[in-house]
């Protein structure tokens, strides 16, 4: 298969967004679709052939990361669950933070972005 025939399903996914990636898994003679939902912490090598997306989630208190090649044929769909704006391209610092700290940090960044600075007028 040529690269032109494969479709990049992560076309407009950005770091900081929460996504659900559905991947077809072959087990024995059967195949099933496995979902992996988490936050995109890195996007590497753009849209070229070796480009990847790193998705992180916390399951039962243990952090799990999965690296998906963007042209992987077994990926059936990618759904964006939540969009958040972040100031970094690589969110590796989230590995050391707890879930509560991550939610607090994202909430404060979103509030800072939505608040507009008050313009003071000088009265003479």
Can you walk through the features of this model?
- With 124 residues, the chain is mostly beta strands.
- The protein is built from one helix and five strands, in the order βββββα.
- Strands 4-3-2-1-5 form a five-stranded antiparallel beta sheet, with no helix packed on it.
- The longest helix is centred in the C-terminal third of the chain and has 16 residues, at 99-114.
- The chain starts with 17 loop residues before the first strand and ends in a 10-residue tail after the last helix.
The averaged pLDDT comes out at: 85
Low-confidence stretches: none
Largest sheet: spatial strand order:
4-3-2-1-5
Distance N to C terminus: 73 Å
Summarize the structure.
With 124 residues, this protein is mostly beta strands. 13% of the residues lie in helices and 40% in strands.
List keywords for this structure.
124 residues; mainly beta; SH3 type barrels; 1 helix; 5 strands; globular
Explain the layout of strands and helices.
Blueprint: E1 18-27, E2 30-44, E3 52-59, E4 62-69, E5 75-82, H1 99-114
Antiparallel strand pairs: 1-2, 1-5, 2-3, 3-4
